[in-house]
Structures are given as structure tokens and as C-alpha cells.
Amino acid sequence: MRAEAYLRDRSRGSDDAPLLQLVWPPRAWTGDIAPIEPPRPTRFEIPTGVLLEHTIAEVRAQQIVDDTRFDAIYPARIRELSSRYWTPVSVARRAAELLVRFGGTRVLDVGSGAGKFCLVGALTSPGAFVGVEQRAHLVEMAQGIADRYAVANASYVHGDLTTVDWDAFDAFYFFNPFAENHFSRLERIDSTVTLTPARCEEDLAITFDGLARARLGTRVVTYHGLRGDLPESYERYSCESCGTDMLELWVKVRA
Ligand SMILES: C[S@@+](CC[C@H](N)C(=O)[O-])C[C@H]1O[C@@H](n2cnc3c(N)ncnc32)[C@H](O)[C@@H]1O
After folding, report:
1. Is residue 94 within 6 Å of ligand 1 at its C-beta?
2. Residues 172-219: tens digit of each pLDDT
3. Helix (H) or strand (E) holding 51
4. How confident is the model at residue 23 (pLDDT cuts 50, 70, 90)?
5. Which helix (H) or strand (E) element contains residue 206?
6. Predicted TM-score (pTM) above 0.90
7. Closest Cα to atom 5, ligand 1: which residue?
8. Bridge partners of 171?
9. Which of 47, 64, 140, 214 is deepest in the core (most CB within 10 A)?
10. Contact 223, 175 (CB under 8 A)
11. Is residue 17 pLDDT above 80, yes or no?
């Protein structure tokens, strides 16, 4: 008798089967051994509540909201990752200020994760924020949150660096998106994508190519850097201490 069948019997009140059947056949025999790596998420339940609505309203009103309070809009697993992987509220607000020069400035967040940078940017500036993200479950969750709070100027696309047309943007934001390729399995966001140092190099090459082809005046903000300087057609306009590192503003000044 398989374990599932035993459990069905138990639910009908039959408790005469030996306990051994709970673990029979042993997991190792099925090849279904829990891997030593972060969990594979399926669907996230997005928290709701009046307090969260207040938090969003306060961010929209340019009030100071700390990350613990803001992150309550996310499911628990996403909150756990925040200090390492998602842009802090104050940093996102400042980065948006540096990137958005006019109403409707189109900003691409390259590797948008849980969507926090785009969400805060869209709440605090008149820019139009798009995030591209390789993990479909994060895209679905980020879009669900933007929709819930009616943040129309934040949207998310599932894909890689080649999925979006970089020419459609005036500005780009990078929170060191490719570094995860160098992290150990336990340090990663999850195990749903293939990460390798070689992939990091490929993504950097695609990024530098896209930025080199961007139009004059394109603005780029990096947080925690992008490994080295941008193409030589860019000049670094400012570098300020922000959050846990530096925010750098680069502007394309030469063809
Ligand atoms: C450090 S997190 C930053 C998240 C978000 N930008 C923020 O600031 O809150 C980097 C994200 O980039 C994504 N990413 C990395 N390489 C990518 C690629 N080639 N295409 C799409 N997304 C990528 C990762 O899945 C991860 O969610």
C-alpha cells in the first residue's frame, strides 16, 4: 500500500495500518530527495489589509517609510530576501529622482526581482517603470501587487535581457543583477534558473552592447555597481553614498 493510500484510509478513520507505511517507500528509493538549496516557489499569496494600503499611500505622499514596514506588502519568503536582494525604499526613491527627468520618462529595471524598485519609483515620481525579470513567479507577484494598489506606471515583463527592446527606454536601473551567478546555491534567491559565471559574462556583454547603442542623453543608475565602468560614451555624473553602497549616475554624452 502506498503512503497516499494510507493517509486516505486514515482520513476515513481507519487507524489500523502500521506506522511504517507513513514513510514507505522511503524517499531515497523514489529519487525524491530534498536538495540542499533554496525552496522552489510555486504561487505566492499576497498579503492584504488596510495598514498596507496606508503604507503605500505614505510612500506616494513622499513620507519616510522604513523597509520593514514597506516589505509587509510582500509574502514572507520575499520579505526574507529583501535586505540582500531588493532595493531599499530610500534608495529606490533617490534612484528614481536621478533617472526621471520629465513626466513619462521610460525607465527599465534590468532584473526587477520582486518589483520593489519599479513600485517605489512609480509611486514617488512621474516616470513609467518597466521591470524585466527572468523568474516568472516574481513577475506574476510584482504585477499582482502593482495592480492591487493601482500603480499604473509600474509593469513587469517575464524574460531575459533580450526580451525587451532597449531602444524603447530613456533610462536604466541596475541593482547588480548578475552577481547572483557567482553565489553559492544556498545564497541564491531560489533554484528556478540556471546561474553560472559564464552567464554573468554573457549578460554583461549584452548589457554593455545595449547601453553603447542607446541614444544620447540616456541615463543609467547603478546600485552596488555593475562590475566596472560603463561604455566610454558614458560619463559618471554623480556618485553618492546611499543605502548599503553607492548610487552612481551615468549619462551617455558621446555617440
Ligand atoms: C539584486 S535583484 C534586484 C531586484 C530589483 N531590481 C530591485 O532592485 O529590487 C536582481 C534580479 O535580477 C534578476 N536577473 C538577473 N539576471 C537576469 C537576466 N539575465 N534577465 C532577467 N532577470 C535577471 C534576478 O532574477 C533578480 O531577481
Report:
1. no
2. 999 999 999 999 999 999 999 999 999 999 999 999 999 999 999 999
3. helix 50-60
4. very low
5. helix 197-213
6. no
7. 112
8. 107, 219
9. 214
10. yes
11. no
Could you state, in order of their start, the residue ranges of all structural domains in the chain?
A: 1-34, 87-252
Closest by Cα among 193, 177, 148 to 52: 148
Q: Whose CA is nearest to atom 27 of ligand 1?
A: 113
Q: Whose C-alpha lies nearest to ligand 1, atom 8? A: 87
Structure-block grid coordinates of residue 182: 557567482
What's the gap in Å between 142 CA and the centre of ligand 1?
Answer: 13
Q: Which residues pair with residue 241 across a beta bridge? A: 246
Distance (Å) from CA 84 to ligand 1 centroid: 12
Establish whether residue 117 lines the binding site of ligand 1, counting it when its CB lies within 6 angstroms of any ligand atom. Answer: yes
pLDDT (average), residues 114-139: 98
- Ligand 1 mean position, distance from CA 92 (Å): 15
- Element holding 57 (H helix, E strand): helix 50-60
Q: Residue 85: CB partners within 8 Å, gap ≥ 6? A: 113, 114, 189
Task: Please determine, looking at this structure, whether the domain spanning 87-252 carries the CATH number 3.40.50.150.
Answer: yes
pLDDT the model gives residue 39: 64
Residue 186 CB partners (closer than 8 Å, separation 6+): 36, 37, 38
Give the residue ranges of DSSP H helices in 71-153. 76-85, 89-99, 116-124, 136-148
